[in-house]
Specification:
The chain is mainly beta. It has a single domain, classed as Putative cyclase (Glucose Oxidase, domain 1, 3-Layer(bba) Sandwich). The protein has helices spanning about 135-145, 165-175; strands at about 5-10, 25-30, 40-45, 55, 75-85, 95, 110-115, 130-135, 150, 175-180, 190-195, 205, 210-215. The chain has a nine-stranded mixed β-sheet with strand order 1-13-11-5-7-9-10-4-12, with no helix packed on it. Helix 2 links the parallel strand 9 and strand 10. Helix 1 (about 135-145) packs parallel to helix 2. The longest helix is centred in the middle third of the chain and has 9 residues, at about 135-145.
Amino acid sequence: MSERRIWDLSQTLQPELPVWPGDVRFACAVTASVAAGSTVNLHRLELSTQSGTHAECSRHVRDDAPELAALPLAAFIGECELRDVSGPDQVDGEGVVPAAAVLDRLPARVERVLLRTLVRPDWGRWPTGFRALDPALIDALAARGCRLIATDAPSVDPEHCKLLRSHQACHRAGMAILEGVVLDGIPEGRYELIALPLPIAGVEATPVRAILRELA
């Protein structure tokens, strides 16, 4: 039996990692070194919970929402559908991906949806003007049983949006979010997603090592 192919969806955490403007930049410092005479190598990390490829819950926008560690892990592991919505005909005048660009290309029931939105991904630069997701799309996916939405963009909402309508739609649906997933070059189709968040008490998000695996 041949081994199933795996695609890594994770951005590398490094000092050059682009972060949301004004957020904490990633830093990694040596605290103990074998080369300096210690018996072990140790490092200290400084980062935002929203660094790179990360899982997120609606605690990000609402104090009354459960923390990320309270969400069922089953939301972050299982079959998913990947679709490319980076084409010029798949975005509306407000720079968001509308429901019409996605729904007709998905099954009637779907638990996890991954959307490739970036036209020319450059993971070394902040993607100014990235495509967000229409909150009506979130509502429609929730009606189909969707429990996780993923995007290669840094957010499901536009960069300068203050109302965060798509985050609020995810809150109403109890839908988990993955942002900043690397989907370059992966064909559209059905896969197994594994993207487990770290069990950190009280937070709204954590970086993840996200992968897609070919179905058996």
